[in-house]
Description:
By secondary structure, this protein is mainly alpha-helical. It contains six helices and two strands.
Amino acid sequence: MGGLAVQRAAEGRIVSGGNRRLGAIIALSVIGVGVSGYLTYVHYSNSSLLCTGAGGCETVNISKYAEIAGIPLALFGLGMYVAFLALSWARGWGGAGPWAALVLFGLSLAGTTYSGWLTYVELYKIKAVCPWCVTSAALVTFVLLLSTAELWRATAEEQD
């Protein structure tokens, strides 16, 4: 363990492997990596997208809103979920201080805000809904809720 982790352990404040909040963020992030990884694969392989329910996947994923500067949004999502994994691990088991909770919160806030805008675009501009996109939006929103609680706890730790 690093110096900060040893200090926290000595004070009885270490964020242990039993931390359910960070564990839940990691679980949600693994699912997010799966969703965004699949969508990234489909984009670059020109495969057909498995779509159930609403059936608007292809419409959404070939729209002008599906890329930024030629890069699929799914690839940005993949990077975001990998960052969530790294930050959650660093915070919970790597001895990272409150900065990791702040970055996790900020990134999830940005992701949730952008996902909200994309949901608006799906509903009112494209007029099609992609269940994969809705799943990702739900995942990042849950990460935001959990990271808000983690930031609150990290702030309390700093004041101790």
